[in-house]
Write a structure and sequence with these properties.
This protein has about 800 residues and is an alpha+beta fold. It is built from 27 helices and 27 strands. The strands form 6 sheets. Strands 1-27-2-3-7-8-9-10-18-19-21 form an 11-stranded mixed β-sheet, covered by helices on one side. The protein has a 5-stranded antiparallel β-sheet with strand order 22-4-5-25-26. A 4-stranded mixed β-sheet has the order 16-17-11-20, covered by helices on one side. A hairpin with a 2-residue loop joins β12 (about 365) and β13. α20 crosses α23. The longest helix is centred in the N-terminal third of the chain and has 31 residues, at about 1-30. The chain is globular. It starts with a helix and ends with a strand.
Length: about 800
Amino acid sequence: MGMRLLKVLGALLLVLVLVMAGTAYWGYRQIAGSLPELDGELPAKGLVAQATIERDELGVPTIQAKSRRDLAYALGYTHAQDRFFQMDLLRRNSAGELSELVGKAALDHDRQTRVHRFRARGKRVLDAGNDQQRELVLAYTDGVNAGLEALGQPPFEYVMLGAAPAPWRPEDSSLVLYSMYLDLQWDDFDHECKIGVMREAYPPAMFDFLLAAGSEWDAPIDGDDFTLPPTPGPEVINLRNPPGAQPAAAPVGEAAPSIDHLQDTCSLMRGSNCWAVAGKHTKHGGALLADDMHLGIRVPNIWYRAQFQWTDEAGDHAITGVTLPGTPAMVVGSNGQIAWGFTNSEGDWLDVVLLDTPADNPDAYQTPDGPQPFEKHAEQILVKDAPAETLEVRETIWGPVINRSPAGQDRVARWVAHDTEGVNLGLIALESCTELERALELANLAGSPAQNFVVADKQGRIAWTILGRIPRRPDFDGRLPASWTDGQRAWQGYLEPGEYPRVVDPPTGRIWTANARVANPEMLKIVRDGGYDLGARQSQIRDDLLALEQASEADMLAIQLDDRAVLLERWQKLLLDTLDEAATKDQPQRTEARALVEQWGARAAIDSVGFRIVRNFRLKTVDLVGHMLAAPCRQQDPSFRMPSANRLEPPVWRLVTERPEHLLDAKYADWQALLLESLDAVLAELTADGQPLAQNTWGEANTAQIRHPIAEAVPQLADWLNMPAEPLAGDTVNMPRIQRPSSGASERLCVSPGREAEGYFHMPCGQSGHPLSPHYRDGHAAWTEGRQTPFLPGKAVHRLVLSPAGG
């Protein structure tokens, strides 16, 4: 009986193993079926003439076509085969259509995003574009759908989601650009609302002190730094004993963020470094353009490398750089005559309009021409495995209603992204541009989130301007929320290229941008302040550049990898001063911390414990002081939080060094008590799990979390889909090497126009978004290690020919 049972169990086990093996094989075939064909000849419906796609050993394609129109088709084909799911997420992100794919988990996101009605706006953008841009978008769309159809199976993500990919539509390329607007600018709405609360809560002198235009860290490429206003006296504001106030308490109703990640929650990780060195200051005599754009990093990476080669009436063209899957343009690159790169400008491209509503008519709002009814739209949000939801969107002549102020007024976003001028394919004209001055004009007219545009040419010249459209705001400051009912505030179209700020061939022979103030006071009146960064990183880059008399590509990479903690040097000294004999007496943990801080190394190195203590001490101190100072703001808005730690750095540093008693909450005996509370909180968090303080290295906190969105939903697939969890050097926004677990340099490059073979390039992850592809992660190690790899594609190892097909 026992032997028979064993035989039966054995047979069942064999069947189970076979079923599991068969299921695994079927699953593998389903997933492998979506790998693209890399060699041979395939028919391509919609292609006018033959095009070729040659890929090197990293999967980087060189696309050759007889026209720019056919090149757009072939690029769409290539994007779809390698990155379609990424493209789908980008269009759904801005359209507010993620719930249709993933269900209720994305519903809140879709509700918040759908108010912009970007799909409808994208259709208007296509109608407003010129003939060439429409032709390229339509060709690109045909190429995407042909590439998707040519896959043996849908991309693997759809197999796992149990969904089918929807065809690409012409307006979807605009939706991809709108996703970049959301990523780079939409937080400006909250920033301006926050400033509005501060303006109401503080006396003018305190408001100006906390939100000064600049400080000693300024490093504009033209002009001088700004001076921080004087510290307000007790006659202006007294936080020590304000009438009827209670000592500041910790934030209520939310878990405090970990100090290691405090900066990530308090400041925006959008950013970038971009600079140029004129030919007279380089070893080979050619101008150098270096660019590393900082964004959130996921799998696959946001950018897709490519080289374009095509012919038109002007002759033969070739350009190398990075593209954005979902769009047909080269975003950043070099065409042999000019090279260009970007950083987010942090100018003011959005205004918050406060509506005045007639008391007897809630369906109308006041305008300079009298009351006007809201334009209402019923937006249907489809939800996977759940009923659809209808969202009512109210539009005004200025833009959509977003939310309400603490006082109960509707708040409207007047935003460049909502206008047809805000989105176009003007970048495509740069691909064949050969003149520096013409490149500046084309950049000014491009429809894109406004960027610092840095350009270098083959003759060794360099220049800066703003890429993207700048609203014309006569006679009013758009930094604060305000009513526009009286007609005194309004945008009057957009500036022409001749009105844009520019710096061409500066006397220093260098241009540097890093999200801080670039412009002099006159130019700043045009760009304005949308929340630009502290100049610490920018000044560090400037100093690195000016120290080089004859720069090379290798020097540029060294600056991009510069992880010296220059801003933190004064905080390290402050911390050592705080840990005096009285503070360390009978305090073994503080004594140990002091020894580690003394040996901190002054850089964001993965093995440094002292660096981690100093940077967290700074962040916690700024957080404590900011929360203390925000007490008047919380009386208006209980959820109020101060602006980023970087924006508060100058006034907070003034306070912790001057130590004015009237600006210290009564809960603290003195400023030394606040600083010690800050340090003790840092040390308590670092040792909360019982790990010795000396083992809390920076690399332990700054470990890569570069994840595929499917792995976030299905953690069991993490090892297969995510990039390695490696410790990373670098930190947040105050040193050139910006690097956090899931954000940082989305690419690094340096190139001299005409000398592209001497340039370098690397980016996280790899070209392919398919985990079974050899190009899924094969570029990642060079990016992690900061290892120089060629800017140009290598020798072709695959060749696919697309031939026109009838029908």
